[in-house]
Amino acid sequence: MTNSFEIDGITVPFSNGQTIMDAALTAGIYIPHLCHNPEFKPHGSCRLCTVLINGRSVAACTTPAGEGIVVENETHELVTQRRLLLKLLFVEGNHTCPGCEKSGACQLQAVAYHCGMLAPEFVHFYPKRSIDASHPDTIIDFNRCILCELCVRASRDSDKKAVFNISGRGIQAHLTIDSPSGKLADSAFNSSDKAARVCPVGAILPKHKGYNIPIGQRLYDQAPISQVGDVAKHQEVADE
Amino acid sequence: MIADDAPQSTTHMTSTGDGSAHELLQRLIELQQTYHHIPWTEIERLSRQLSLSQSHIVGVIEFYSFLHTTHQGEYEIFISDNITDQMQGSRLLAELLAKGLGIEIGTTRADKRVSLNYTSCIGMGDQGPAALINGYTLTALTTERINQIIQRVDASTPLDQWPRSLFEVSSKTRRKDIILNSEYIPGAAIAAGLKNGPTSLLNQLEQSGLRGCGGAGFSTASKWRFCAAADAEKRFVVCNADEGEPGTFKDRYLLQAHTDRLIEGMTLCAAVIGSSTGFIYLRGEYRYLLQPLNEILEQRRKAGLLGQSILGQANFNFDIKIHLGAGAYICGEESALIESLEGKRGIPRSRPPFPVTQGYCGFPTVVNNVETFCNAAMIAQRGPEWFRQVGTPASPGTKLLSISGDCERPGIYEFPFGTSIRDILHACGAQQTLAVQIGGAAGRMIPATEFNRTIAFEDISTGGSFMIFNQNRELLRAIENFTHFFRHESCGFCTPCRVGSSLLAKQLSKVMVGHATAKDLDEMSILGSLMQKTSHCGLGQTAANPILDGLGKFPSLFQSRLRATSFEPAFDLDASLEEARLLTGRDDPDAHLEGGGV
Description:
Order of helices and strands of chain A: EEHEEEHHEEHEEEHHH
Number of strands of chain B: 15
Number of domains of chain A: 2
Structural class of chain B: alpha/beta
Strand order of the largest sheet of chain A: 2-1-5-3-4
CATH architecture of the largest domain in chain A: 2-Layer Sandwich
Largest sheet of chain B: 6 strands, mixed
Radius of gyration of chain A: 18 Å
Largest interface: A-B, 40 and 39 residues
Strand content of chain B: 5-15%
Strand order of the largest sheet of chain B: 6-12-11-15-13-14
Shape of chain A: globular
Oligomer: heterodimer
Number of helices of chain A: 7
CATH architecture of the largest domain in chain B: 3-Layer(aba) Sandwich
CATH class of the largest domain in chain B: Alpha Beta
Distance between the termini of chain B: 58 Å
Number of helices of chain B: 24
CATH topology of the largest domain in chain B: Rossmann fold
CATH class of the largest domain in chain A: Alpha Beta
CATH topology of the largest domain in chain A: Alpha-Beta Plaits
């Protein structure tokens, strides 16, 4: 007899040690997320995967699954909440989808569509952030960084390089690069690193192949994110 | 009271220099004291010695308010900017100081002699306005004292030659109850614990009903029991002396006047859970307490109450190290505190696992507030019935309150749990009170209609902050102060708190300048509710409390400042055209928008 719990009325099996997110991913149930990637230690920072267990808010990616728990996921209240969280991410950075190379294959954009976010609501911060184009093969556009720390985790845990880090506090928190100049070109980064392929948005992009896939034929142009899943997963397949 | 050593020297530091990455924060604090910034050569040196990347080290520096990569003044001055300091005239004094020193607030003087900044509440609400100079506390500031400071900075007088009176921190109490009226007998609690054994002691604690005094109120007996039961080769005892909640200063008093009780309580905990190492995480703002605390630790080692073979028990060894904070409110959250103890950025961990099973370095750890350890020591000494004689069934015993703001007698008060706000206001001589902020910025704002409510875990729970506002105060100023506090102190890890705290501050500014509409108020309450429900830790979950309480209990404060229109842009449309007018050389009437474009 296997353990199981419920997500929106659907019975989901799980094994010991699995989080709600792990079990949902295995069962093919989509819980919106940005900072989660099953290859890395759960982080719990974007808060998009916030679900309700018996009325209590928890992050699905860091909360262990439990026998018989009742999880609410795609409710009106939670979708509204997620739409608001997404708006905050758009407010904080400079996200101009129509001009972005990642458009159509961007997880932030795709989750926003999934949650029905169609227009901004708050006054945007329009922060002044730079672009790091120093590296021959990879460009970093800090305007699009959502601080999911997937590149930080991938570089530290997979590549064993710790090229990326977070500095500052609060709204000043920002991604940094470990090199004497602070530039990517002077770091240990290589475009074949895992860290080059985990960014869910257009903050870390390969050079020399802009708009290779025409708009309209990109990952989330074909099917919604709830069906095709994370962009990183498809990136891995494309690279093989 | 101030350390006898020259405050600018680097003696009496806390790092042990064992070369582990956990030393990073303590090493950075020493460097900041020595050089008034962290020089790049030192970052490179630390990177080699501790095997940490340079960007990791910079990440830690930029997390803590008292650490800087840019050169600060030889005198680093921080003016406490809590609302109670402001009510005592701190802003005006800060401006006088800035003028006298010839600098802008928030800058370092060109000759690098002095830098001047505001900082979050430094725990001197009963003797403000207060400030820090090179980590040491200046109290009860007046124009006369500001002039003394200016003269000595201009003359480059070393801090140890400044008048001691400037640094005096009073530790008097206004009201005592069973805890403060009881005499502490050195070693009695530990002896009782050793004699009767851990099980009996835990039972006593359980019978006493002692709950965590930091505000959350978790059962102390359960916490110690969980930690003792966790399977591990070692365990740690940590005292949370990072008293950062605006308006609270009762731990400062206990650390200063009842150090022995605290250390006795920690040692008792060590005996119960089986620990050989403890830490006191002392907030950087209380640096003046570092040397006296170390002296008492040393006295207790000599008296056989700490260190090897405590009270002659051959296998009971326990010692305590003091770890300094460096200006980060979030480190009062127990898992962020543990991260900081490990020398890292103070980002709260995901829970579970809780510190009692995986805490410091992954080992089971008890983290308790200063008052909790002190109370545990007295309960072991006097028994659970003594403790339960006052308080309520769900909240036995007493609570230390830090009372500040509009009253005749601010200070430390010990009240039994269950005491009404009205009685407390009467005791401290508060008149014509409009509202009380209980539990600090993260607490609740209580209007006069609720003054019959009580201080208790089952009613209004608090870590001890009690700030009083009378009818002449503009409450919206307090709400603004708390909202800015959270924007400054958010760690930046999770989306709702990082962005939400900034957005709330912006929306509130719109209200303050009279540009907000009813829609803006709706947006604030929606945002606040989102932060409560989705934030990663208690900071984000409570950061909107001041605004939500204000909107719920004092709606007229906001509504009286609203515009009648349904929509109002956050910026002045006409002013935004100024650059275009300059570029085109136009200034005719058609190049202007009437009434700011609204």
